[in-house]
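As a warm-up, study this chain.
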Amino acid sequence: MTSTSKSIEQDVSDKTLLDNIFDYEAKMMLSVILNSTKAGLSMFMLSDEKYLFSLAYIKSVLWECSLLGHLNVFMLSDEFSPTKDQPNRDFHGYAMVFSAPGFETAYLHHIVVKDKYQKQGFGGQLMKQIICTHPSITLVCNKEMIPFYEKYALTNKGLYNVPDGDNFKLSRGLYNGLHIMSLNGNPTQSLVFMLNDNDLKKMTFGN
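Now compare it with the structure written out below.
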């Protein structure tokens, strides 16, 4: 499969496609939460209704960030126009970058490539486009991903220090062991998208 049949878009305008991406992201985030936090122990007992509520909460946060202009979505997909037989475009991968006034450095939340499209250079295509648009970025990642980001000149700044305080007692497990990496920026001046305990409680209990 060659990259000539693929397109990279940013600021995805197709609301249906963007909603599909946010739905995919919400399911991934909820899976990580269930396996990485103390709150996950309670969430394992969620009813189907509560599970759907949790997904909807995550999607609402992403939509709010997008509508406020704080979330830039890069998407990798086939180049084709929807038809009657194929009404919806599918995405092969995407990346989410957060930015906000007052922060000099953008935050790369992560790059996602669907399993069947991995090992084909799509993550690198997304990374190059991100750097063209956001020349100063920061991200957090696990140790295994450091070599990938180093290929694009990001520097490993060491382990990420999870904020102290009561608001990260439950969510601390989401960030333990992650490294912070940066390109042309100061990590302390970057907006880091994090779920704190209040978010987890709202997601889990709806209050």
